[in-house]
Design brief:
It is a single chain. The protein is of the alpha+beta class and about 130 residues long. It folds into 2 domains: about 80 residues, RRM (RNA recognition motif) domain (Alpha-Beta Plaits), CATH 3.30.70.330; about 35 residues.
Length: about 130
């Protein structure tokens, strides 16, 4: 986790066709490269808007420097849900995975039963030819 991070807005372009702003920014930090989640929070504070209106396109770390360059898009309407709501979704998916495993375990047994009559038919055919 980054202990100290400061964001400076370098350039802002208004994109009226897509109803958004394209922003270029610079991150000055101490320590490791900040995560996208940390940058999103700090960028929202700097722009004084809710983080659900921002999409971060890229964060580029400069070699051997404590600076990063970044690109983001800021929309007038929310473009995604809060991160707290997403944490509950994986719990609902776990039982589905167990059902798929049970289905795949049954399929080979069915195939084996189908192959046995074919082997008997082949033996009968070879006996008729002789």
């Amino acid at each position: 986790m980054v202990t100290d991070m400061k964001i400076e807005i370098i350039e802002t372009d208004e994109n009226q066709l897509l109803d958004r702003k394209d922003i270029k920014f610079k991150i000055m930090q101490t320590g490791a490269t900040p995560s996208e989640k940390d940058v999103l929070k700090e960028l929202a504070k700097t722009l004084k808007i809710d983080s659900t209106h921002i999409i971060i396109d890229a964060i580029h770390q400069r070699y051997s420097a404590l600076e990063c360059d970044g690109l983001a898009k800021v929309f007038k309407k929310p473009v995604r849900e809060k991160t707290e709501e997403k944490k509950e979704e994986p719990k609902a998916e776990a039982p589905v995975a167990e059902e798929k495993k049970a289905e795949t375990a049954e399929e080979p047994k069915v195939e084996e039963k189908k192959e046995e009559p074919k082997a008997e038919e082949k033996k009968a055919e070879t006996a008729k030819k002789e």
